[in-house]
Structures are given as structure tokens and as C-alpha cells.
Task: inverse folding
């Protein structure tokens, strides 16, 4: 089962500029001259993807994500390193680009299948399924120039996924189209995954990355900045965004997971603890039990404002609940240097069984994106168990009441 | 040679793409016209009729050695048949990669197949004009003969020549855009350095031997010989065939070398 279907080994992509293009042409015949200027957009990128894995590629614009995908799909070639791909790759990038607008949906479907090297007989057998999945009705036999952009996406997605590929590359392109079809496409992608298709997913949507992927690769100006659990990598990526003004980002191992730690340190956490109603530290909580997150904070430099924020996350790093003292209108205005503060968050553990973590932040405004003083992911990790409540599923405990009535209602109940 | 085999295998794999792209091109060209594909025949037919009437009846131009009043029309049409196959193919191959830039940059298009799509679609037009001409020539007092059977081979040689030349120019044109401009000028000179509108005999003797260095002059004269004068090919045609093979070896080699850079520069 652990057979790598995609091995990216030391990939580098270079764009070159020559004094004259003739020098480039001469280079093909062995008269090599060094180019005037070299620009590496991707270098030293290596990772392996096992069969059936889902890997997210994240990074800011211009980090080299698209170039990496183009190299994997074969649109462009790497200047160094190798990409080994086992089996067919299907890319949901630039949906509908190969279409000829004067041809009908059916003809375009045939054409794009042929472009993928699928023979005519096989293509013909795939068409009914494509037509059914796209759900564009009679438009399937109309020229695509009269399609709405949503219809183009529907058709293009249906064609691109007509055959289950070994590797599927999905771009944000997929998020266009109506909710119904987006849902349907993700269902198909999940179905492929169950059958062993490897997924390479490019997105800025943390929710989608966390729920769909097993692993994430972070690219930063063409280099691999990090590889690991999606929530670790996303936390680090978020911290990097916050960090672009000052300070450095540190990652330390805590509770077996990498915890990201960032901030300029103008204010910082001295101590963080999770307490029960009696004020005693806990790391296993019962569903429904009252809890308190206590943070001792020191302000080291005088700052205009101090906002304390927290975020409760589930096992996958998905936010469960979070807010900050800006939103609760409890901003500490102009705290003096060397003052100390205590923040107590009283919260009942209305949570389902499982592992949870808390991220804490100190910053000056309503988000951590500007003036980030101290940011700690996985500041607290704790377990929730259900001991005395009736059995339920889900990450949240909602006190519900279920009324059971026999039907028709007996007069005793009505009176 | 192994790379040539690999290339051919790739082309075979994408034969479905090539035929589908050629069909798509005609479909989109005539998509919104009322009589559609009929234009494919009507346009060359109109050319044959107009040339025959104007040159034969109105101007009554003659060429040496042919008695018929339609002699010059037949001569010109035959020459144009050969020349347009070459000129149109190279012209379109000159910009084939640039024309498909947006697709090439974003999706994995089988790029080596693109020149064959061009060749195929020009070839269809050529075939139609050829068939019309084969019907028209007897009406213009050029009776059919066994030598007509040479024409398919000659067409293949011209197509091969144009493919090699066009792929070379098309590849270079991506990097050196002036090449495409130069091609237009070269084709214009080429037209007049090929005996299409004049018989080769009218040239001064000194020039007449030089013009045989132009491979298209040899091919156009071979067309004339086969269709009009009932003569078979000379050694020149074999030399052009050899040239076409060599040119293709060179062109596809350059294409392969350029291929990694091609998409980046577009």
C-alpha cells in the first residue's frame, strides 16, 4: 500500500534571459554560453506522495505552486531534478481551456478526451456518463459559446474526471460553480480517494485543506518551507503572514505536534493553564464541565492597546469557537510597560469527546495580522470525555430536549 | 533515430486528437455559415472558373507549346495548386506555437501533434482543389493521362518539405519573432522565383539553371509535367524528396531541443 505514486526529487525551474535569443538557439547545438540572468522560481523541492494520500500545496501567490503543478502535469519541464509519476494524471486546472467555443459540448468532450490520449472507442463509451454527471441538459449538444461559465466548469469537470486518474490535481478553479455542483464534485473526488486516487490540492482555504488532506507542503519563494500535518503547516503559514512585519517564527514540539510561536514580544504569555471549577489544573475534562483558561500576561513595552484572543480547535485544527477582547469590548487601553495582566476565560466544556487544543494570541487590533505581540498555537491541549451525559456524537454538546408523543395525541397530554 | 521513433509513436497515440482537431477546425470555420462545408468546395471552384474564363476567354493568354486557349489557365492553376500547399502550410506552421500559446502555457497539449493538425487541415483544402482541378483540366483541353498518378506522391513530397521547413521556422519564431516576419518576405520572393505565372522558358538561360536550386520550382514544374505535358519525374524530384527528409530530421531535432524552453518563452 505504501507505494509512492508521485516522487518529486529536487525539482528546480529556472527562467533565463540571454543577451540575444540567438545565444539560446546556439545553446541547443552545443554552443553553450552562460545566460545574462537566471531566475529560479523553484529550487530543491522534494516530496513523496504515497498511493491514496491527499497532499495540500500551500503558499502565497508567486511562491511557485503553479509552476510545481505544471511540472507535474508535464506542461513545462524542470531544469533540474526529476518527477516520477506512476499512472495517469488528471489536472483540474484551467477548466475548459481546451474547448473550442464553436463546437458542441459533446464534440468538445470528445476532443479533450482525445487530447488526453484516450482512443475514440473508449471516449465514446465515456460520453453518456459525462453527459449525466454534467447535468446541463440539452446544452450538451449546443455549441459551448452559448454556455454560462458555470456550465463550462460543469462540463470541463465531468470530462476531466470521466476516468478515475491515479493522481488528481485540484486547483481553486473548482470553487467556481454553484454550491450544488461544488458539493457534487467534492463527492466525486472523495469517491476517487476511497478507490486509491492520490490527491494534490492547491488552496488558500484552510477549512478545505484540513478536511480533505493528510499532509501539506508549504512553498515560500520557490523553496520548501515546511512539510507536515495540515494544521501544523497552516498554523505556521498563518504565523508567517502575521510575521511579515517583525520578529521570527519558532516551532517547538509540544504534545507530539509542532506548535507555532510567533510575535514581536511587546507583550507575552508568562503562564497558560486550564483549570476546573475548583481552580485545579486539568488536562482531561468531562463533557459539560465548567472550565477556565487562565493566561498570565506581561507587557514588556508600552503599547497602544492589548487584545487577548483565543481559539478552541478540534483534533483536525478546525476552529470550534474563538473570539477576542476586541469583540467583547474589553480592550486594555495603553497598558504601561512592565505591567502584568491576567485573562480568565470561563467556558463550559460543551464539547463532544475527543482531543482539543487552544491557540492564544496577544495583539493590538481586532486581528493578529497587524501588531502581533505573541501568538501561540497548541498553547493548551486537552481531552474531553463523556462520563455522565447521554451518548452523543459531534464536537459540540448542545443541551437538547426531545419530546416523544404517541400519535394521535391522547387527550391526557393535550389537556 | 530512436527519438524519431518515439516521436512517431507519440503522434500515433494522439491520432485521435489530430483528427478531432482538424475536424474541429473546419467545424468552427464554417459553423455559423448557412451552407457550411459547401464553401470548402465553392471557393476553389470559383477560383478555377474565374481563372479559366478571364485568362482563357477574355485575356486569351497563351503559353508556348500549348494550342488550347485555356492553356495558361490550366498552367497557372496547376502551379498554384502546388504552391499554395507549400506556402499555406509554412505560413501557418510559422505561427503554430504562438497561436496556441495560451493553451500550451496552461494545459498539457501534445505539442508535437500541433504541426500535423495544421498539415492535415491544409491538406484537406489541397485535396479538394486537386479533385476540382482533375475534373476541370479535361474541360480545359488537358486530357487525363497515366502520369496523373504521380500527383499524390508529389503532394506528399511538398507536404514533407513544408512540414520540415515550417516546424523549423515555427520553433525559431517563438524565440526570435523576426523569423516570422522574414518568412512572409521569403514566401513572396519564392512565389516569383517559382515558375507559376510564367513558363520557365521565358527566363534568360543564366537564370533558368539557377532557379532549379529552388526546390519548389522543381516541384511546380513536376506538377506541370505530370498534369499538363504527360511527363514523368526527373532526378530533381528525388533530390527534393531527400531534402524534405533531411529538413525534417533537422527541424524535429531543433524542436526537441527547444521544447523545454518553448513554453517558458511563449
Result:
Amino acid at each position: 500500500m505504501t507505494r509512492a505514486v508521485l516522487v518529486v526529487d529536487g525539482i528546480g525551474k529556472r527562467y533565463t534571459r540571454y543577451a540575444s535569443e540567438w545565444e539560446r538557439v546556439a545553446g541547443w547545438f552545443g554552443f553553450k554560453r552562460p545566460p545574462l540572468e537566471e531566475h529560479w522560481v523553484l529550487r530543491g523541492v522534494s516530496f513523496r506522495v504515497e498511493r491514496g494520500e491527499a497532499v495540500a500545496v500551500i503558499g502565497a501567490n508567486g511562491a511557485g505552486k503553479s509552476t510545481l503543478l505544471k511540472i507535474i502535469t508535464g506542461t513545462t519541464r524542470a531544469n533540474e531534478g526529476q518527477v516520477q509519476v506512476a499512472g495517469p494524471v488528471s489536472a483540474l486546472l484551467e477548466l475548459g481551456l481546451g474547448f473550442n467555443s464553436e463546437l458542441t459540448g459533446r464534440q468538445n468532450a470528445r476532443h479533450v478526451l482525445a487530447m488526453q490520449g484516450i482512443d475514440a472507442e473508449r471516449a465514446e463509451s465515456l460520453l453518456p456518463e459525462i453527459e449525466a454527471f454534467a447535468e446541463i441538459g440539452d446544452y450538451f449538444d449546443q455549441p459551448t459559446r452559448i454556455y454560462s461559465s458555470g456550465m463550462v466548469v460543469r462540463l470541463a469537470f465531468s470530462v476531466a474526471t470521466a476516468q478515475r486518474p491515479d493522481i488528481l490535481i485540484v486547483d481553486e478553479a473548482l470553487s467556481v460553480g454553484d454550491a450544488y455542483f461544488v458539493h457534487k464534485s467534492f463527492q466525486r473526488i472523495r469517491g476517487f480517494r476511497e478507490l486509491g486516487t492520490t490527491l494534490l490540492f492547491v488552496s488558500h482555504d484552510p477549512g478545505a485543506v484540513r478536511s480533505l488532506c493528510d499532509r501539506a507542503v508549504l512553498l515560500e519563494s520557490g523553496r520548501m518551507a515546511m512539510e507536515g500535518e495540515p494544521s501544523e503547516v497552516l498554523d505556521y503559514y498563518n504565523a508567517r503572514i502575521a510575521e511579515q512585519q517583525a520578529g521570527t517564527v519558532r516551532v517547538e514540539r509540544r504534545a507530539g505536534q509542532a506548535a507555532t510561536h510567533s510575535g514581536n514580544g511587546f507583550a507575552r504569555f508568562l503562564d497558560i493553564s486550564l483549570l476546573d471549577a475548583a481552580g485545579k489544573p486539568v488536562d482531561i475534562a468531562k463533557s459539560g464541565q465548567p472550565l477556565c483558561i487562565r493566561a498570565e500576561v506581561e507587557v514588556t513595552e508600552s503599547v497602544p492597546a492589548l487584545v487577548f484572543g483565543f481559539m478552541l480547535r478540534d483534533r483536525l485544527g478546525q476552529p470550534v469557537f474563538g473570539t477576542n477582547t476586541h469583540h467583547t469590548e474589553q480592550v486594555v487601553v495603553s497598558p504601561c510597560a512592565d505591567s502584568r495582566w491576567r485573562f480568565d476565560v470561563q467556558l463550559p466544556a460543551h464539547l463532544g469527546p475527543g482531543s482539543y487544543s487552544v491557540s492564544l494570541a496577544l495583539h493590538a487590533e481586532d486581528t493578529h495580522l497587524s501588531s502581533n505581540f505573541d501568538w501561540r498555537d497548541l498553547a493548551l491541549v486537552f481531552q474531553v470525555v463523556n462520563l455522565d451525559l447521554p451518548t452523543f456524537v459531534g464536537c459540540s454538546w448542545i443541551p437538547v430536549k426531545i419530546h416523544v408523543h404517541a400519535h394521535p395525541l391522547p387527550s391526557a397530554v393535550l389537556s | 533515430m530512436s527519438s524519431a521513433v518515439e516521436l512517431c509513436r507519440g503522434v500515433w497515440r494522439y491520432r485521435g486528437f489530430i483528427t478531432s482537431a482538424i475536424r474541429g477546425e473546419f467545424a468552427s470555420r464554417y459553423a455559423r455559415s448557412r451552407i457550411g462545408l459547401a464553401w470548402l468546395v465553392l471557393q476553389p471552384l470559383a477560383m478555377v472558373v474565374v481563372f479559366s474564363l478571364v485568362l482563357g476567354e477574355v485575356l486569351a493568354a497563351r503559353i508556348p507549346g500549348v494550342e488550347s486557349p485555356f492553356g495558361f489557365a490550366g498552367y497557372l492553376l496547376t502551379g498554384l495548386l502546388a504552391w499554395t500547399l507549400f506556402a499555406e502550410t509554412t505560413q501557418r506552421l510559422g505561427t503554430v506555437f504562438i497561436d496556441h500559446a495560451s493553451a500550451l502555457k496552461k494545459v498539457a497539449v501534445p505539442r508535437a501533434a500541433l504541426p500535423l493538425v495544421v498539415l492535415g487541415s491544409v491538406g484537406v483544402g489541397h485535396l479538394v482543389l486537386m479533385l476540382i482541378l482533375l475534373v476541370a483540366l479535361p474541360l480545359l483541353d488537358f486530357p487525363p493521362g497515366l502520369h496523373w498518378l504521380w500527383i499524390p506522391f508529389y503532394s506528399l513530397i511538398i507536404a514533407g518539405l513544408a512540414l520540415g521547413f515550417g516546424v523549423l521556422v515555427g520553433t525559431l519564431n517563438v524565440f526570435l519573432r523576426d523569423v516570422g516576419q522574414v518568412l512572409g518576405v521569403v514566401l513572396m520572393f519564392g512565389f516569383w522565383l517559382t515558375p507559376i505565372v510564367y513558363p520557365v522558358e521565358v527566363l534568360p538561360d543564366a537564370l533558368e539553371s539557377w532557379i532549379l536550386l529552388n526546390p519548389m520550382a522543381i516541384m511546380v514544374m513536376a506538377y506541370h509535367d505530370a498534369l499538363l505535358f504527360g511527363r514523368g519525374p526527373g532526378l530533381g524530384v528525388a533530390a527534393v524528396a531527400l531534402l524534405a527528409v533531411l529538413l525534417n530530421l533537422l527541424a524535429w531535432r531543433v524542436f526537441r531541443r527547444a521544447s523545454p524552453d518553448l513554453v517558458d518563452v511563449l
